[in-house]
Each structure stands twice: as structure tokens, then as C-alpha cells.
């Protein structure tokens, strides 16, 4: 049986709290993400409860550990709805959100996704919302920055290799990469997925290397990302641009672990402390998070997930306050019809529940020295190369030159 972790925040609450339930990875390979997300949610709940709660009711978080196992997810959401009788729901990443959707749709409940890619393309459910800034075409926004920068090189690239994990998020990202290659007239010379349990990436990357691609686009999960980047160095993989949709480069522990090996890599971010990115309230929120992170042993920076989970709850909290309750249809209508001011900026949701305007950052790692995590709090370590509105520098290429430039 999966044990529920009840997080009680604030002073003694009223007899009828507003319960917010969700599955979250507290153990397993994605636990780093889940624990950081939970802390972001706890910070929001603490603040709300200290201010008197929502509509006079305290907030109670009801998270269950899904053990990073999508197979446990349907049972978790059935229990949240049928046994715990939660008022509001959050969902988790792509792999965990997809199996939760049939239960949520059956119960006609609002669901606020924390970090899922292109889920509603399949379900087209009007009660679904997603807090990450993918926009109406997540597969495009996650890949466009990589390819638009690559095609602007002189001379232009002509070939690309695609590789990724055989799992939901990675396959979605690879689908987006194929569309970008077609749009730009690039020839795909390698296109394969590897089992999620892969630990030795030498055969994969050597096969890819044999095709001599100009560009290498990788769609990976945290442990894969570390293995692939290390292997790329070991075999002297030297395309013009290397990176892609690499989950893990956003985590403080992996930034620290890889250190200088990240130089030149292109990946994605949603918030980083570049001078072109200033959102009211985010620095204060992250100060609270970072002060607690060391105590509980979670991601030291909190740039990737916690601020967005906090913002997701800001949206739900405003909807509850403005509609005066937790009637699901009223909440759905309110969220569809309004713009929300959050610590990650202003958010307007489209009919599909995604941000109307995408805002995924493509970044290139630069000037990293050693493994000190504090250097990533400084500007210039992850230079934003896309979108143009937030750009803080240009792509350095080819990949080998980008690595050497960082060493000087």
C-alpha cells in the first residue's frame, strides 16, 4: 500500500480545510524533482494559511508518493477523489499525468498540471491546465530555440541526429524535433530511442557519431542526461551544436555534478537569473525556497520546478477566492477567462489549458569553472539564446569551440 504523506501547514485549521491532492515522486529516479516541487507547494500553503487561508478555510496538502512509477498513478488519483475527497488536484510530469487523466475526466474534475508536455493534445479536456510555459504547441516550443539558432549558423547545417529515451516526454520532444528538421530542410541521419533503463551510452553515441551529423538533438531524463554528456566527452563527439530537450541540466545537483562538462551544451530552462528575466516576486519566493532547501536536502536552486508549482497554486488560490468556493465548473470557467499575475510572470491560458504565449528558454552553458553550485546564481552561466524577447547572448559554435572558449 502506498502511504500518504499529509503535510499540515500553518496554525490549527478550521474543521473543513480545502484539500489539494496530487501524486508526486518522493522516491525513485525522479524524486529530486518531486521533493523540490513539494517544497514549493508547502511554501505557498504556509503563506496562505498564515494569512487566514482561502475563503476563510485553511489549506491542506495531500501528496502521495508515486515512486516515479506511472503504473501507481491511476490508483493514487482514485483514492484522492473517492476516499480522501480532495477539493483540488495537481498532476505531475508527462509520464505521470497521462495515466491520471482518464480518472480525472471521469470525475469531471479540474486538474492543474505541474510539468507535463502536450498532454491535452490527446485528451482535449476543458478542465485541464498546465503551468509550464510550453504554449499551445509544446513540442514546438521545446525544440524551436535549438533549431532556430542552429539554422542561423554560417555555414548552415544540413544534417541532424536525433536520440532519446523510449518514454512519453522524450518521444514528444523527438516528434517536435522531427517537425523542426522538416521545416528547415534538414536531413535526419540518425533517429533512435533507447530503453529508459540504459546506463551505457557508448554504443548509442558511437552509432550516432558514425553518421557525422552537424547537429545532435537529445531528449533525455536526468540520469540519461548525465550519462550522455559524459559519454559525448569520452568519445570526442564534436557536432556543430549539441544538446536539446535534456531534463536534468535544470537541477542544481546535476549542474554541480557535471560542472565544466556542461560548457557549450544547449538545453532548456524556464527561469534563470539572467538580466533579461525579471518577474515580480520570484526572487523573494526563491529566497524562501533556498533557505529551506538546504534543511530538507532538495534542489539547492529551485529554478526549474518549485517556482512554477508555487505559481500553479497561486492560480488555483485566486480562482477559489474569486469564485467563492471549489465548484469545479466555476473554477474552470474562471481560469479560462482571466490572466493571472504570478511569480513566473503573467499567465493567460488558452482553450487547451496551455499558456497562450509560449516562453520556453533555450540556453547555452558558458564560462563554468569547477563544480561550485553558487556560480549558477550568477548571470552568464546559462545564456538565453531564445526567444528573442529574453535573449541575453548569441549561440557559440561549433560545440568544440564553445567548450574551449569556456576554458579561456
From TrEMBL:
This is ABC transporter substrate-binding protein. The lineage of its organism: Bacteria, Pseudomonadati, Pseudomonadota, Alphaproteobacteria, Hyphomicrobiales. GO terms for biological process: amino acid transport. The keyword Ion transport does not apply. SUPFAM superfamilies: Periplasmic binding protein-like I (SSF53822). Belongs to the leucine-binding protein family. InterPro entries: BCAA_transport, Leu-bd, Leu_Ile_Val-bd, Peripla_BP_I. It comes from the Bacteria. Residues 17-366 form the Leucine-binding protein domain. Keywords: Amino-acid transport, Signal, Transport. It comes from Bradyrhizobium rifense.
